[in-house]
Specification:
Blueprint: H1 2-5, E1 7-15, E2 25-28, E3 42-50, H2 54-75, E4 82-85, E5 93-96, E6 102-109, H3 113-116, E7 122-123, E8 146-149, E9 151-158, E10 161-169, H4 176-191, H5 218-229, H6 232-235, E11 246-253, H7 255-268, H8 278-301, E12 313-321, E13 339-347, H9 348-351, H10 356-374, H11 382-391, E14 395-400, E15 418-421, E16 429-434, E17 442-449, H12 450-463
Parallel strand pairs: 6-9, 12-14, 14-16
Antiparallel strand pairs: 1-6, 2-5, 3-10, 3-15, 4-5, 4-8, 7-11, 9-10, 11-17, 12-13, 16-17
Helix pairs in contact: 2-4, 8-10, 8-12
Length: 467
């Protein structure tokens, strides 16, 4: 694998919006943005079939790829900007100045493309070379303001096999919806040969004033931000240390599997008004399978009875997008973060019990309904509660969503063969995306130690045999 990790650099440059196309602009950060300072950047990889030599890509694709990126950044200029982080009591903000840029690299890899995009378990380090790097230390201006870049791009060419468009995107600037708005813009402009008329109906909404900070929320968030930013000089961009035997895999639930799981929940809860969706049954199945995996591995490794924590609560964390909802006056094209944290809690004894899947589906479905109806109620407790649950270590979080339609990001080389979220490797998170090959299905990505993955595969496959 060491040889395959070696990348040959063909291009290293900066891509800016066309000169003079965007005035100097600053955007304040909302209470939806501020909590993300303490979370990792979003590393998303789009893999495409491209059975041609590297030289063909450099001559026929690269010029238009960079030109269309420049034109797209004109309309999504915060991606070329920086996040300015002044010391206390200053407030952070996004600042764009003419000439600001996104870093852009083109490299060649000798790795086996089909192995890289496979669903079966592979070493987590396999994907890391294809995610672009950002500065290890945040630059500091004369007044003590730390300057954080927002995005970097890397194109990796696998000669005569494929291409990877890799991105490293600061979550403070925006969520997955925001980034996919940009990707749809970039791919559309590329397919149109640089013609911007294709964007007339899909331009982003920049007005941050549509999100008002509820009373009492900002002091806590700003204090958390100041504590986080004060350590950036030591920690910005440092890679997470991963276990040597950690692997990642993608698990697919086809439409038939999903429908069977839905019917199982409905059949056992006929008298209840439930929210039973593809998201709900998928998350319930994965959550229960992961907890059963942990329990089984602990029992196998321990000769003595392990600490009995059946009455302890375990937590499933997932975001609710507030765009296009009647309780929030926020359009679907809003640029920024617009995610409401949702937390489902259950005792371990319930999750690993005989009816664990159905109980988990009910709990997650009820939480979705509750969060959709509650609007901004209790907003002052959202982040403190989230932090408290994360610190227990007994949590699993969701990254991505099938509603992002990541497989629609086509540059004209065909739909992506695979889309991966690299950053789930560094925390207890799973990734979700729509199933590429079948409408109504779903893909789940996760990373575990090798022995845990073996156990999870066995439990997951057995779960799909439910009547």
């Amino acid at each position: 694998m060491a040889e395959a990790d070696q990348l040959k650099v063909f291009d290293s440059s900066h891509v800016s919006p066309p000169p003079g196309s965007v005035p100097t602009t600053s955007l304040h950060l909302t209470f939806f943005d501020l909590p993300w300072f303490s979370f990792p950047y979003i590393q998303r990889l789009f893999f495409y079939q491209f059975p041609y030599p590297t030289l063909d890509f450099m001559e026929t694709c690269l010029p238009l790829l960079k030109h269309s990126l420049s034109l797209s950044l004109q309309h999504f200029f915060p991606l070329a900007a920086n996040i300015m982080c002044p010391p206390p009591p200053g407030r952070p903000y996004i600042l764009y100045k003419d000439g600001d840029f996104a870093t852009f690299m083109v490299v060649e890899s000798a790795a086996d493309f089909n192995h890289v995009i496979a669903n079966y378990p592979r070493d987590v380090k396999l994907l890391q070379p294809f995610a672009p790097k950002l500065p290890m230390v945040a630059p500091v201006a004369e007044d003590g303001t730390r300057v954080l870049p927002i995005v970097a791009f890397q194109v990796t060419v696998f000669p005569n096999a494929g291409i990877c468009i890799g991105s490293n995107f600061c979550h403070v600037c925006g969520d997955g919806n925001t980034f996919m708005q940009f990707m749809r813009c970039w791919t559309s402009v590329y397919r149109a040969g640089g013609d911007l008329t294709c964007l007339e109906k899909s331009l982003p909404l920049w007005n941050k004033d549509v999100i008002e900070a509820p009373d009492g929320t900002e002091p806590f968030l700003l204090k958390m931000y100041w504590n986080c930013v004060s350590s950036y000089s030591e920690n910005c961009g440092l890679p997470h240390v991963l276990a040597a035997d950690k692997v990642r895999a993608t698990f697919v639930l086809g439409r038939a599997h999903v429908e069977r799981l839905k019917h199982l929940v409905i059949a056992q809860c006929e008298s209840e008004q439930l929210h039973v969706s593809t998201f709900v049954v998928t998350c319930a199945l994965i959550w229960v399978s992961l907890i059963k995996t942990q329990e089984s591995v602990i029992k196998n490794l321990s000769d003595d009875d392990h600490d009995d924590d059946d009455d302890k609560f375990y937590y499933f964390l997932f975001p609710l997008d507030c765009r296009n909802r009647k309780e929030f006056a926020i359009l679907g094209t809003y640029f920024g973060n617009c995610l409401k944290p949702s937390i489902t809690e259950m005792k371990k004894s319930e999750l690993i019990g005989e009816n664990g899947f159905v109980l988990a589906a009910k709990a997650i479905g009820n939480k979705v309904k509750e969060m959709e109806k509650s609007g901004m109620r209790g907003v002052e407790n959202w982040i403190p509660t989230l932090i408290e649950r994360i610190r227990t270590g007994r949590r699993i979080a969701v990254a991505g969503s099938p509603k992002l339609h990541v497989y629609d990001a086509s540059f004209g080389w065909g739909r992506p063969s695979k889309v991966e979220l690299v950053h789930i490797e560094s925390g207890e998170a799973i990734s979700l995306a729509e199933y590429r090959d079948e409408q109504g299905g779903i893909e789940v990505g996760l990373a575990l130690n090798k022995n845990q993955m073996d156990e999870f595969v066995a439990i997951f496959e057995q779960s799909l045999k439910l009547p």
